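User: I'm putting together notes for a lab meeting next week and I want to include a structural view of one of the chains we've been expressing. I don't have a solved structure, so I'd like a prediction I can at least talk through. The sequence is below, exactly as it appears in our construct file.
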Amino acid sequence: MNSSPLIVETIGHTALLTLNRPQQRNALDMTLRGALAEAIPRVRDDPQVRAVVITGAGGHFCSGADVGLLAQAQAGPRDVFEGRARVRRMQLWFDELVDLEKPVIAAVAGSVAGAGLSLALAADIVLAAPSARFSAVFARIGYVPDLAAMHLLPRAVGLARAKDMVFSARQVDAEEAQRIGLVQTLHPADQLRDAALALAARFEHAPLGALGLAKQMMNRAFESDRRTVFEYEALAQALCRESEFHRDAVARFVDKQPPRFDWDPQSPPSTT
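Assistant: Thanks for the context. Below is the predicted structure for the 272-residue chain, given as C-alpha cells.
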C-alpha cells in the first residue's frame, strides 16, 4: 500500500492527484500540504498533462485541517506572525491551483469540510458521490473560512447561501450541493473515479491556451468591470488568433474535416 500522503499518477494525459491519509479522512497535515505544493507546479509545467483530477482515498475527499495540528498549536507559547506565515504558505500553492491553466476536476465523496471544501471549490468541475457531505466547518472551532473559501464559495452558490453555510457550519448533502451549484453531477461511489477520468480525457485535444486564458478572465470577472473585461478579451483573442490550434481548426473547417476538439458527439457524464 502506498504510504505517500499524496499519490500522483499520470493516466493518459490526465494527472490524478489522490489525497492519501484515509485514516484521518485525508486531513491536511504538513506533509500533505508540502506534497501538494510540490505536485501542482509539476503538473502545471508538464506539457503531456492536459487535465487534472483531484480525489481522496478511503471514501473521503478531505476533512480540512488536521485537528492534531490544531491541538499541538494550543500547547506552549505561540507567535501570531508565524501563524500568519503558515497560512500564507498554504495560500501560495492554493492560488496556483485555482489559476492552473488546465481543466481541474474534483471527484469528492464523504467528508468535504473546511479547507477540503476550499480544495473542491478550487476545481473547475466537481463530481460527487451520494455520500459527499460539504461543510464550511470553521465556526465550530472559532475560525473564519480560509484558503479563499470566502472568495470562492459566494461565487459558486451566491452570497446568501454562502453565509448560511459559513454561519451555521452545517453539513450540505450531495443532492443539495448539486441543487445550489457546488456540484455538477452525481455518480455512484464505485464509478466516481472513472467518471472523473473519463471527463478529464475529453480535454485531451482541447485548446488549452484558449481555455487557460478564459479561465483567468472568468476567475477575475467578479472584480472586473465590463470595459476591463473587454481589454482582456481583445488581448486574449489576439493571442488565440495566432495559435497553431486556431490555424489548424480553420484549415480543418475549410477542408471539411472533423475538428480535433468536439465535445458534442461524445456522451456526457452520467448523472444520478
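A couple of points you could mention at the meeting. The chain has a mean pLDDT of 92. Strands lie at 6-11, 14-19, 51-56, 104-108, 111-113, 125-128, 133-135, 172-173, 185-186.

User: Perfect, that's what I needed.
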